[in-house]
Amino acid sequence: MSNDIEKKLQKLNKPTHLRLTPQIIDNNIKAVEYKRVENSTLTFCILTLQNGFSVTGQSACASIETFDEKIGEEVAYKDAKEKIWVLEGYLLRQRLFENGIA
What SS3 class is residue 3? Predict the structure, then answer.
């Protein structure tokens, strides 16, 4: 989720216990590791979460001549982080359901 969306939600005064925040997602990340496939533009990001579960993201550039390692890592990190939103969203929805809120 972008910081712009978070700012909009804060302005609307939406309750944070009923939704995820970027801080919750960030706090769940225990370790970050990058792997680049040799002689390619393919970059993987492995995010290890606090509970030991890992998610991966990836990026690839169309041309080795325009490849930038830092940009590749940034895109792969963002891709992996989006997967955490999905997982945490499911967990929150399940907790709300179990508590009769959803």
Answer: helix
